[in-house]
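Supplementary Text 2. Reproducibility record for the structural model of the 91-residue chain.

All settings were left at their defaults, and a single model was retained for analysis rather than an ensemble. We include the record here because the model underlies the residue-level annotations in Supplementary Table 4.
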Amino acid sequence: MHDSLPMRRFAGIDLGCEPVPDETTLRKFRDLLERHDLGAAAFQWMHEHLKRRGLKLSAGTIVDASIIHAPSSTKSAAQARDPEMHQTIVY
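Retained model, structure tokens:
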């Protein structure tokens, strides 16, 4: 949530006024939802709430496509190049 403004807005967190919950807090909350089988109910409630306003909610996956600094070698442990491995040069 630190680097995602849309997620902070969704959660109602203003970094100027309050801290972002840490990973442990978020994990405990998720575990409570799962333990009490509330995830599906919350998703359904949100779906109905948005549907009444003409919006649609669907499941998906968030993919992080961050570019990180890493060694330039693309060789595997067997000293062979992985045909699916590519390098990106950032200037």
